[in-house]
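Bench notes, afternoon.
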Amino acid sequence: MMYCPTRTTSPILTSCSNVAHMIQIVKIYGYTRCEKSLHRSLTLVDKFISGDELLEEVFQMACLLGHVSYDLFYLTAALRNDALLITLDKDLKTLAEKQNVKTN
């Protein structure tokens, strides 16, 4: 039997958890403050888009651009909504700029 998060789990949840975890590991903030920041960080999102809605387009872009799908969920959402893509990932930022997506 295989268990996995729901298909609609947003990559942002994984990212928020990873960032909070890294901050806690390097002892910038303690566990409790990092845990509280998880829910606060989600308030920065204006609209959640189902991964199912983006899946085929992300796959096409991954094949065309030779980039990992995980990042392309963010890029695809930004492209579709003419939105700013906020990232610290230099490769994703470069890729986004080549697709005329505004970045931080």
